[in-house]
C-alpha cells in the first residue's frame, strides 16, 4: 500500500474526476500530468526549470479532448489505471523508499513518468525543454537554494525588452499562442469587417460599438487567434496585438501631466514597431482621464498622432451611449476611426456560442452541462435579466452554475433545474415562479383569487385573461404585462385584489400613493431629479424600485389625484414598457403589471335609482372616467375594470374572512376561537357602510374582538392558551372564557 501525501492524493482524485467527467475508460499518465499542472508546487518546479506552463497545458488538454468518450459507461464506474500509470506509481514508490522518505510526493510521480516508454505526457514536457535530469537536479538542489540562481539568462533579457509595453499593456498574441484565450464562436461578418479596415491605407483604425456584454473584447481575442491560424490573410501575418490596461496607466498619476507623460512614452514605444496593433477597450475612458479637472483635450491631442500614424494601428471599443457622449464630440479622434457595430446576438446564436465554450468550463469546474442547461442559460437570462445583454449574461449563468456545484460537491452534471435556481436568486423572484410550468402556475389563478376576493368575479376574470394572454406569448413584446384602471367605490377590494395577485404570482408588490404626487415638481421623485438639482445622483423612487424588482406589480393608488405630468410619463411606460430616468438610463417595464385605482364615478353611480340595470351603473361610471382621463391615456390601457358595490352576501363573506384570519392568529397563541352565525351577521350589518365599503368591518373586529382578547392574552386567562367563544347577546358582542366561567360584555 502506497503512503502518499495529501497533495498527491488530491492530484490523483482530480485526475480520476477528470476522467469520469470526460467518460474516459482509463486513467492515463496524461490525466495525471493535467492534474499536476494545477498544483502550485509542480508549476513552480517546471517554471524554475525554464519551462512555460501554458503550452504544456494546452497540449495535454488537446490530447485528452481527442481521447474517445465511452457514453455507455455508468455514472458510478471508476476509470481503470493503464499499465503506464501503474508503472509510474510503482517507480515513484520505489524512489520514495530508496530515499528514506515517509511519503510519496507529486514530484516523485512526475519524475517517474520519464520511465514510461512512448508517453505523450513525457513528449509534451520535452517539447518545452524539460527532461528527467533537470527535475532531479531541482529536487536535490532546491533545499540549498542553488537551483533558483541558474535561471535562464535569455529569459531575463526578454523580460527587460519592451518593458514599457509589458508594464502597461497585455500581449494578446502571446496568450493566443499559449492557448490561453477562449475561442470566438460566430461573428464571422464582424471579424471580416475588422480585417478589411485594418488592410486600408487610411482610416485603418476600427472602432467597435456595442452594448456592454455583447462580446466586443471577445472579438479582438478571436482576432488574435485568427492571426495565428492558417487562414490569416497576408496583411495580418506576424502582427502582435497589445491591449492597453487603462487602470495601470492611470494608477499613481496624482498630478496633472503624469498621465500624458506615460501616454506619450507608450506611443513612442509603439512607433518603433511596424507590426503592432493596440487595442483600447472602453476607449471613451481615455478621453476623460487626461486630468483631474475633467478636461480631455490633452489626452485627445496626444492620441491623435497615434491614430493617424501609418506605422501603428489601433482598435477601440465603446458602448453606444459613451460613443455619442464622448468620442463623437471629439471630431479630431472620431474621424480617424471606422465604426463597426456589434449587435447583441440572437438566442439561437447565443446557444451556439455557449455550446462552443462549454468544454472550457467543463474542464475548469470538472463537471458536465447537458443540452437543456445550455438552452436554459440563454432563454432564462434573456427572459429575466433584462438589464444585461447576451451572450455575457448567459455565460455568467454557465460559470456560476459550475462554481456552485463545485463548491457544494454535488452532482457533476448541470441540468436546467440548477440554472433555474440561480436565475431566481439573481432576478430576486421566487424559484417556484421559474421552476413551475406556465400551466401549473396559472391554472388555478382565477379560482384562488375568487376565494380571497368576494363579489368581484368579473374583475378577477378580466385580470386573469390578460395575464394568460401575456404568458402565452401572443401579446406585443414591447409592452407591460398589463396596464389596468380599477374603478369603483372605496372599500370594494381594488387594492386587496392587487395585493393578492402579487402573492399568487410570486412577485413584489410596489405601492405608490398618488396623493403625494399632486404638485408638478413632485413628479421628479418618481424618475429622479434633473442634473444640477439636489438628489440627482439618488435616482427616482419608481425607477429604482423597478430596477431592484424587475418582476413586480406596481399599484398607483388614486391615480386621479396625480399631476397631469405624471400621466404623460405613464403613457411612455404603457406604450413601450421603458422609462428613461434622469440619468439617461432605460428602465425596463416588460415584466411589470401596472394597476391604477380610481374612485372617479363612484358618487354618480351610487345615486343610481332602484330598478336600474347593471349596464346603466357601469355606463355612468365610464362617463365619469372619460371626463377625468384623456383619450390617449384610456387608449393605452389594457382594460378598465369596474368593481361592483358589495352585496349582502359578499359583506357576510368578508366578515367571515376577517373572523377566520383572527382565528388563525389566535391558534399561534394556542387559543381556540369559535363563533356563531349571528356573529358574522352582526359584523356584516354593523360594519358595512356604503361610503366606506368593507373597511369598517376590520375596524369593528379590532375594537370589539381583538382589543378585549389582547388584555386576556397579556394579563388574563389566555396567557398559556385556552378557548374563547364569540356570541351575540342583546345585540352586543360577548366573549365567553370557559376558564373563567364568566362572560365579559362590551358596552
What's the CATH architecture name of the largest domain? 3-Layer(aba) Sandwich
What's the β-strand tally?
A: 21
Write down the oligomeric state: single chain
What value does the average pLDDT take?
A: 78
Poorly predicted residue ranges: 143-161, 290-297, 609-613, 742-747
Largest sheet: 6 strands, mixed
| Distance between the amino and carboxyl termini | 90 Å
**Name of the top-level CATH class of the largest domain:** Alpha Beta
CATH topology descriptor of the largest domain:
Rossmann fold
Instruction: From the alpha carbons, calculate the radius of gyration and give it in angstroms.
Output: 36 Å
Summed up, the helix count is 36
Number of domains: 5
Category from helices, strands and their pairing: alpha/beta
Describe this structure in words.
The termini are far apart. Helix 21 (392-408) packs across helix 22. Strand 20 and strand 21 (742-745) form a beta hairpin. The chain has 36 helices and 21 strands. Residues 143-161, 290-297, 609-613 and 742-747 have low confidence and may be disordered. The strands form 6 sheets. A 6-stranded mixed β-sheet has the order 3-5-6-7-4-8, sandwiched between helices. A 5-stranded parallel β-sheet has the order 12-13-16-11-17, with helices on both faces. It is globular, with a radius of gyration of 36 Å. With 747 residues, it is an alpha/beta fold. It is 52% helix and 13% strand. The chain folds into 5 domains: 6-155, Double Clp-N motif (Orthogonal Bundle), CATH 1.10.1780.10; 163-341, P-loop containing nucleotide triphosphate hydrolases (Rossmann fold); 347-430, Helicase, Ruva Protein, domain 3 (Orthogonal Bundle); 439-642, Rossmann fold, CATH 3.40.50.300; 648-745, Helicase, Ruva Protein, domain 3, CATH 1.10.8.60.
Amino acid at each position: 500500500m502506497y503512503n502518499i501525501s495529501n497533495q498527491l492524493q488530491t492530484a490523483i482524485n482530480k485526475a480520476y474526476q477528470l476522467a469520469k467527467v470526460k467518460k474516459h475508460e482509463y486513467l492515463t499518465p496524461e490525466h495525471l500530468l493535467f492534474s499536476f499542472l494545477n498544483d502550485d508546487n509542480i508549476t513552480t518546479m517546471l517554471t524554475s526549470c525554464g519551462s512555460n506552463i501554458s503550452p504544456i497545458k494546452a497540449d495535454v488538454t488537446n490530447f485528452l479532448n481527442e481521447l474517445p468518450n465511452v457514453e455507455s459507461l455508468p455514472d458510478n464506474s471508476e476509470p481503470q489505471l493503464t499499465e503506464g500509470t501503474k508503472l509510474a506509481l510503482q517507480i515513484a514508490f520505489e524512489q520514495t523508499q530508496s530515499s528514506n522518505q515517509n511519503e510519496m510526493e507529486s514530484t516523485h510521480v512526475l519524475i517517474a513518468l520519464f520511465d514510461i516508454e512512448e508517453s505523450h505526457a513525457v513528449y509534451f514536457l520535452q517539447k518545452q525543454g524539460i527532461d528527467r535530469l533537470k527535475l532531479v537536479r531541482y529536487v536535490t538542489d532546491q533545499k540549498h537554494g542553488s537551483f533558483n540562481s541558474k535561471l535562464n539568462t535569455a529569459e531575463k533579457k526578454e523580460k527587460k525588452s519592451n518593458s514599457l509595453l509589458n508594464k502597461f499593456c497585455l500581449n494578446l498574441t502571446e496568450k493566443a499562442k499559449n492557448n490561453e484565450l477562449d475561442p470566438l464562436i460566430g461573428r464571422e461578418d464582424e471579424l471580416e469587417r475588422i480585417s478589411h479596415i485594418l488592410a486600408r491605407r487610411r482610416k485603418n483604425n476600427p472602432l467597435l460599438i456595442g452594448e456592454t456584454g455583447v462580446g466586443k473584447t471577445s472579438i479582438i481575442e478571436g482576432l488574435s487567434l485568427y492571426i495565428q491560424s492558417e487562414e490569416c490573410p497576408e496583411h495580418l501575418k506576424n502582427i502582435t496585438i497589445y491591449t492597453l490596461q487603462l487602470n495601470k496607466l492611470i494608477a499613481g498619476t496624482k498630478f496633472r501631466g503624469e498621465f500624458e507623460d506615460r501616454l506619450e512614452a507608450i506611443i513612442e514605444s509603439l512607433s518603433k514597431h511596424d507590426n503592432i496593433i493596440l487595442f483600447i477597450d472602453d476607449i471613451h475612458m481615455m478621453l476623460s482621464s487626461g486630468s483631474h479637472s475633467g478636461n480631455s483635450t490633452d489626452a485627445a491631442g496626444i492620441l491623435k498622432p497615434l491614430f493617424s500614424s501609418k506605422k501603428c494601428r489601433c482598435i477601440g471599443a465603446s458602448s453606444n451611449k459613451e460613443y455619442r457622449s464622448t468620442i463623437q464630440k471629439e471630431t479630431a479622434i472620431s474621424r480617424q476611426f471606422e465604426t463597426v457595430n456589434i449587435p447583441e446576438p440572437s438566442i439561437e446564436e447565443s446557444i451556439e456560442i455557449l455550446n462552443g465554450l462549454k468544454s472550457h468550463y467543463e474542464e475548469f469546474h470538472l463537471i458536465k452541462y447537458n443540452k437543456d442547461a445550455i438552452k436554459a442559460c440563454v432563454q432564462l437570462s434573456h427572459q429575466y435579466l433584462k438589464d444585461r445583454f447576451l451572450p455575457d449574461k448567459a455565460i455568467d449563468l454557465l460559470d456560476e452554475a459550475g462554481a456552485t456545484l463545485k463548491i457544494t460537491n454535488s452532482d457533476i452534471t448541470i441540468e436546467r433545474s440548477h440554472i433555474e435556481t440561480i436565475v431566481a436568486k439573481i432576478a430576486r423572484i421566487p424559484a417556484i415562479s421559474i421552476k413551475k410550468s406556465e400551466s401549473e402556475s396559472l391554472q388555478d389563478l382565477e379560482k384562488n383569487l375568487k376565494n380571497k376576493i368576494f363579489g368581484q368575479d368579473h374583475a378577477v376574470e378580466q385580470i386573469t385573461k390578460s395575464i394568460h394572454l401575456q404568458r402565452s406569448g401572443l401579446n406585443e413584446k414591447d409592452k407591460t404585462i398589463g396596464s389596468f384602471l380599477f374603478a369603483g367605490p372605496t372599500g370594494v377590494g381594488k387594492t386587496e385584489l392587487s395585493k393578492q395577485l402579487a402573492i399568487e404570482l410570486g412577485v413584489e408588490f410596489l405601492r405608490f400613493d398618488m396623493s403625494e404626487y399632486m404638485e408638478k415638481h413632485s413628479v421628479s421623485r418618481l424618475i429622479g431629479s434633473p442634473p444640477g438639482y439636489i438628489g440627482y445622483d439618488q435616482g427616482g423612487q419608481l425607477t429604482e424600485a423597478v430596477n431592484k424588482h424587475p418582476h413586480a406589480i406596481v399599484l398607483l393608488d388614486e391615480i386621479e389625484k396625480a399631476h397631469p405630468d405624471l400621466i404623460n410619463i405613464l403613457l411612455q411606460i404603457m406604450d413601450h414598457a421603458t422609462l428613461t430616468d434622469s440619468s439617461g438610463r432605460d428602465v425596463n417595464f416588460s415584466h411589470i403589471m401596472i394597476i391604477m385605482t380610481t374612485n372617479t364615478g363612484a358618487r354618480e353611480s351610487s345615486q343610481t335609482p332602484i330598478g336600474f340595470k347593471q349596464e346603466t351603473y357601469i355606463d355612468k361610471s365610464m362617463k365619469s372616467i372619460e371626463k377625468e382621463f384623456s383619450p390617449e391615456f384610456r387608449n393605452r390601457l389594457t382594460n378598465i375594470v369596474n368593481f361592483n358595490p358589495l352585496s349582502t352576501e359578499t359583506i357576510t363573506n368578508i366578515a367571515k374572512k376577517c373572523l377566520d384570519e383572527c382565528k388563525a392568529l389566535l391558534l399561534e397563541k394556542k387559543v381556540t376561537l369559535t363563533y356563531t352565525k349571528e356573529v358574522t351577521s352582526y359584523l356584516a350589518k354593523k360594519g358595512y357602510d356604503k361610503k366606506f365599503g368593507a373597511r369598517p368591518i376590520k375596524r369593528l373586529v379590532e375594537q370589539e374582538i381583538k382589543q378585549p382578547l389582547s388584555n386576556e392574552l397579556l394579563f388574563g386567562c389566555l396567557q398559556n392558551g385556552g378557548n374563547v367563544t364569540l356570541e351575540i347577546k342583546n345585540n352586543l358582542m360577548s366573549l365567553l372564557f370557559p376558564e373563567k366561567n364568566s362572560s365579559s360584555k362590551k358596552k
